[in-house]
Amino acid sequence: MDTPPAETFYEPLDEDRFASTPATAGPWSPGFQHGGPVSALLGRAFERHDPVPGTRIARVTVEILVPVPVAPLRVSVRTVRPGRRVSLLEGELFHEGRPVARATGWRIAAAPDHVEPTDHAPAPPPLPATSQAVTAWPEAYVDGYLSAMEWRYTEGSFTGRGPGRTWARPRVPLVTGQADTPLVRALVLADSASGVGAQLDFAKLLVINTDVTVALHRDPVGEWICMDARVHASPHGSALAQASLADPSGEFGHVLQTLLVDEHRP
């Protein structure tokens, strides 16, 4: 797509209420949101809730209770376990008074400056000069989230089956007039792991994630994030999507999604 479907994912209505724009729509329907913007909106709320200097949100888990409509949403956050070095936050998204998603987030103290960094993953490939068009994904609705993101594949594609690796960045901010934080940029992308690493035939099977967990050992640097994703599935079981996240300096976190795998039903 040459232009994104909207200039932002969400328009603020007041402090805790947001209008969802067409850019939030997922690949399965123009009426329901992709989990990326939903996760990022909850993560943004965690960062803004009673901030404690010297701490960071290190892990976010989002439970998707029902398909989230492209409609006005209200965000609520509370502290479940307070603490100066470790605290647990809980958030909910509501549509017309009904909860549609819940999340927990661990806020922990940042490590001291003298901690020696460790690196167990190879450096990501360079950012490709040209992008992979998303309009070739058969049967998918591409005029929402897929077009609001820029994708540059180095392995696989939306149309192929197998592990995939792509550099990606949002083409619009999460909330109008506000710069995205590193956590928000990671969460906007994270729920795409099952699509980037797709190894199941979406035309023959219903594959939907019930949740997404994002754990970051450091904050990403820069606007581009590299996702290296794959899906694990078994007969008589379910499936897991697993991905690593990296910036040009190296890996900074991981993503895990639990997936429902079933036959398509009327």
Model description:
Helix content is 12%, strand content 39%. By secondary structure, it is mainly beta. It has a single domain (10-110, 128-263), classed as Porin (Beta Barrel). Strands 1, 2, 3, 4, 5, 6, 7, 8, 9, 10, 11, 12 and 13 form a 13-stranded antiparallel beta sheet that branches. Helix 1 (35-48) runs antiparallel to helix 3 (182-190). The relative contact order is 0.17. The model has no long low-confidence stretch (mean pLDDT 93).
Low-confidence stretches: none
Percentage of residues assigned to helices: 10-25%
The CATH H-level homologous superfamily: Acyl-CoA thioesterase, double hotdog domain
Radius of gyration: 18 Å
From the helix content, strand content and strand pairing, which structural class follows? mainly beta
Count up the domains.
1
Number of strands: 13
CATH topology: Porin
Domain Acyl-CoA thioesterase-like C-terminal: 131-261
InterPro entries: ACOT8-like_C (IPR049450), Acyl-CoA_hotdog (IPR042171), HotDog_dom_sf (IPR029069), TesB_ACOT8-like_N (IPR049449)
Pfam families: 4HBT_3, 4HBT_3C
Domain Acyl-CoA thioesterase-like N-terminal HotDog: 25-107
